[in-house]
Amino acid sequence: MRGVKLQYQRRPAVAAGFLVTMVCVAALYLQAPVLAHAVSHPRTNWPWAVCQHVKRADRALRRPAGARPLRVLATGDSMIYPIHEVLTWLLHPSRTQVTVDRRDGTGLRTPTPNWPRLARRQAARYRPDVTVITLGGRDAGFPLATADHGSIPCCGLDWQQGYAARLRPLVLSYLRGGRGRVYWLSLPVPRDAGAAPLFAAVNGALRLLVGEFAGRMRLIPVEETISPGGFQDTLVYDGLTIHPRHPDGFHLTHEGGCVEGALVEDALRADGLLR
Question: From the CB of residue 105, how many other CB atoms can be counted at a distance below 10 Å?
Answer without folding.
Answer: 18
